[in-house]
Please model this.
Amino acid sequence: MLDSGREGSVDLDCTIETDGRARDCTMVAVRGGYAFGSAAQDWIGQVRYSPATVNGKPVETPHHRIHIVFRLQ
Model:
């Protein structure tokens, strides 16, 4: 996509676990081509989030929407 000068974005719906990992991610929207969706799925498996907390304890967060933008500089 870089060689063709394309940009895009992907919206994912994921569950954020208590350890900050995203699981059960589904693509809600892909703009710019399926390759962006594939790259977003690969990337989301490598990142960790700060989980939500209740009374100071981490809790699982279902249906967390994640918007990833692929932009050329």
The helical segments are 34-44. The chain has a mean pLDDT of 93. The longest helix spans residues 34-44. The radius of gyration is 14 Å.
